Amino acid sequence: MSPHVIFWIVFLVLLFLVIYFNIKYSLLKDLSTADRKPYSFSRVQLAWWSVIILSSLISILFFKGVIPTFDTSTIILLGISAATTATGRIIDDSDKSKDILRIQNQNSENFILDILSDSNGVSIHRFQTVVFNLAFGIWFICTVLYNLDHLTGSVNNIIPVVVENNLILLGLSSGTYAAIKTTENK
Predict the structure, then answer these.
(1) pTM given for the model
(2) Is 161 left (phi over 0), alpha (psi -120 to 50) or beta?
């Protein structure tokens, strides 16, 4: 079986699990009192990178029989997503403890509008963060698939190194999202 097929099977299985756990346990949704809880951008971001990196890891393990050592940039990438999720949760808990009207308590409109919108509607900082994460995620997947086919040397070279400036870009984008999120319910 080709490494591409293995990757996409693993990717789809993990995506199915995320969707299943979202339906059953609201994995990707905000803490909310709404009947149809809105999707949380930060949770979606963490799931996105987790599925991509786990798909890469499992594919390499299946195809090459060894677990690669992650480059520091991959750990930082997951750390940015985890920190964004943790910060979002802290902000939500803080807002929840105050008796204020929270955008998160409004019913979900749909997946795309939920992750792109704050209390003022679709916002540029959320759009930017979504687009950057989508673009870098697609690049990451394409690089892994290419490297699986054209590997010369160590399996540690299959998962791409995200250069420092790109990590800074993703970090600033997520940081801007989190900073502006502190004001969205005020």
Answers:
(1) 0.93
(2) beta
Is residue 157 situated within a structural domain?
yes
Tokens of 155: 């399996």
User: Whole-angstrom Cα distance, residue 9 to residue 59?
Assistant: 9
Question: Which residues have C-beta within 8 Å of that of residue 36, sequence separation ≥ 6?
Answer: 107, 108
Residue 5 amino acid letter: V
Q: For 115-147, how does the pLDDT look when each residue is reduced to its tens digit (9 = 90+)?
A: 999 888 999 999 999 999 999 999 999 999 999
Number of domains in the chain: 1
Across 106-114, average pLDDT: 94
- In angstroms, the CA 41 to CA 15 distance is 16
Whole domain around residue 21: which residue ranges?
3-181
In-domain check, residue 14: yes
Q: What tokens were used for 21?
A: 């756990």
Question: Which pair of tokens denotes residue 44?
Answer: 């979606």
